[in-house]
């Protein structure tokens, strides 16, 4: 989505262009009054937002499937054979991945990745459980299994979801290779190229990557300190309806949001469901962090209020991300298609890994383990917040997350966090710049800091280094009076990877 502010009505747009007039959101000013939209923007990936000085803000959503010739040309240029599918043009590597070789050196403090801290896991106990699994049930564990997942694990997943008020039938659960696979499959079965998906702005980079891979267009809905704003959701839907567009679904991360760190207020939850229902829009609730609240509060899932919600869950953050076990809980009408899609992707999720998770849930005190994890994460969050308070220059702001892994930081006007990233890595600190979390290139004043993995001491040191880099940027701006230059890294979300997930 390209965002512009205009002094008047929309810049003169060719009526025959492939764009129609639409809805709203407010964003970065970047067009002078009366200036026309550069043609290159009309061929950009997503909707174009206009914020007039007076009157309603509008979004132009490309009216049809992106021109396959445009995409085909890009794909052909990138493909040695020139034969890649047009949709591969939307697949790009994440920004941090380009710097990964440097960012993963031990001397660099990485505040970029969302890797869970597994140090607290009872590895000895797990080792003997795994050994016993192979000895006692190896013939089953090492064999193909059901495309939907093992019945035992699906039942246990229903027990886990009960903590969030969900009353589910195991036959509606589909086990996937991480919830990332569920996201990919849900997008595959819902979205044709050009379809519109609503997502919070910012949103999870892996979801944006899946939406891009299926050529869906993202309209972001802004959040405040209490999560997604219902009135903005309603006005976005109204505006899209005026264009004859019904989004395929709202993708939302209600708890301890990645990357924004906020939680959707409990009183907003029924309202959001009601708004989506009244416009015939499905809701996809992605909830990998729901049990990771620092105060022990577990919020009621949207799915607990409405059985039509598609719910995605994961053992990545509450147990072990390397096992790649996640799930989707779907209405029966969606289930059969999802299972077929899963089957065509992987035949079945790994039986061995599912059985390890099952044993873990059966034999270990997993709820106490989650408490141990959250205590460690809270200590790290506190270290990060106190370092931000101590070291950051004036003009920065951030949220105080009550769970999960992330702090979302806004830096002073003029600093471009994407341009600054290579300089930060040179100063031995890495972060995820904000633009990766928007489908439209917005977010250059934001960045995400993860506190999940490094020790509190490393976090403090990382923030101190980041503050040094920011201060140097501000000095350059003060001296030369110009914003920091945008880097030549590609815009957009990029593919998810463990270093940015
Ligand atoms: C919001 C969100 N959804 C989904 C995922 C994917 O998790 P999984 O490891 O289950 O694939 C992540 C990973 O960071 C995430 O933050």
TrEMBL record:
Pfam families in the cross-refs: Aminotran_1_2
Names of required cofactors: pyridoxal 5'-phosphate
Subunit-level organization: Homodimer.
Enzyme Commission no: 2.6.1.7
Residue intervals of the Aminotransferase class I/classII large domain: 122-466
Organism: Pseudonocardia dioxanivorans (strain ATCC 55486 / DSM 44775 / JCM 13855 / CB1190)
Keyword Transferase: yes
Signal peptide interval: none
Listed GO biological process terms: alpha-amino acid metabolic process
GO molecular function, one term: pyridoxal phosphate binding
Keywords: Aminotransferase, Pyridoxal phosphate, Transferase
Entry annotated with the keyword Glycoprotein: no
Protein name as annotated: Transcriptional regulator, GntR family
């Amino acid at each position: 989505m390209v965002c512009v502010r205009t002094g008047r009505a929309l810049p003169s747009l060719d009526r025959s262009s492939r764009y129609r007039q639409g809805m709203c959101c407010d964003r970065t000013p970047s067009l002078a009054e009366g200036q026309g939209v550069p043609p290159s923007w009309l061929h950009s990936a997503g909707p174009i937002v206009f914020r007039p000085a007076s009157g309603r803000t509008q979004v132009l959503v490309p009216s049809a499937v992106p021109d396959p010739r445009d995409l085909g040309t890009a794909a052909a240029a990138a493909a040695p054979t020139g034969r890649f599918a047009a949709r591969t043009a939307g697949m790009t590597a994440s920004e941090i991945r380009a710097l990964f070789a440097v960012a993963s050196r031990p001397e660099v403090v990485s505040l970029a990745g969302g890797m869970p801290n597994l140090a607290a896991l009872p590895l000895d106990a797990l080792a003997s459980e795994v050994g016993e699994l192979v000895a006692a049930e190896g013939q089953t564990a090492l064999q193909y299994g059901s495309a939907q997942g093992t019945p035992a694990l699906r039942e246990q997943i229903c027990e886990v979801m009960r903590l969030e008020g969900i009353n589910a039938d195991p036959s509606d659960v589909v086990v996937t290779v991480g919830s990332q696979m569920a996201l990919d499959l849900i997008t595959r079965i819902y979205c044709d190229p050009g379809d519109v998906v609503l997502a919070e702005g910012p949103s999870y980079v892996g979801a944006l990557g899946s939406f891009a891979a299926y050529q869906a267009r993202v309209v972001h809905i802004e959040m405040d300190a209490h999560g997604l704003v219902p009135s903005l959701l309603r006005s976005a839907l109204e505006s899209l309806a005026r264009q004859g567009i019904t989004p395929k679904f709202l993708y939302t991360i209600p708890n301890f949001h990645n990357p924004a760190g906020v939680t959707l207020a409990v009183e907003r939850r029924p309202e959001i469901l009601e708004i989506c229902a009244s416009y015939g829009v499905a809701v996809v609730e992605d909830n990998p962090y729901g049990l990771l609240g620092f105060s022990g509060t577990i919020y009621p899932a949207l799915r607990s209020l409405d059985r039509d919600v598609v719910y995605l869950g994961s053992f990545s953050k509450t147990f072990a991300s390397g096992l790649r076990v996640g799930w989707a809980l779907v209405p029966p009408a969606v289930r059969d298609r999802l299972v077929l899609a899963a089957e065509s992707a992987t035949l079945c999720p790994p039986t061995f890994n599912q059985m390890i998770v099952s044993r873990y849930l059966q034999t270990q005190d997993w709820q106490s383990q989650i408490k141990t994890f959250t205590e460690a994460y809270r200590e790290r969050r506190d270290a990060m917040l106190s370092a931000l308070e101590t070291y950051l220059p004036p003009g920065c702001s951030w949220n105080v997350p009550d769970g999960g892994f992330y702090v979302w930081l806004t830096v002073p006007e003029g600093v471009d966090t994407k341009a600054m990233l290579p300089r930060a890595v040179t100063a031995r600190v890495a972060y995820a710049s904000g633009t990766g979390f928007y489908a439209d290139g917005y977010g250059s004043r934001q960045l995400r800091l993860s506190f999940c993995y490094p020790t509190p001491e490393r976090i403090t040191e990382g923030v101190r280094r980041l503050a040094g880099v920011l201060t140097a940027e501000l000095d350059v701006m003060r001296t030369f009076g110009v914003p920091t230059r945008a880097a030549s890294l590609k815009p957009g979300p990029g593919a998810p990877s463990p270093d940015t997930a």
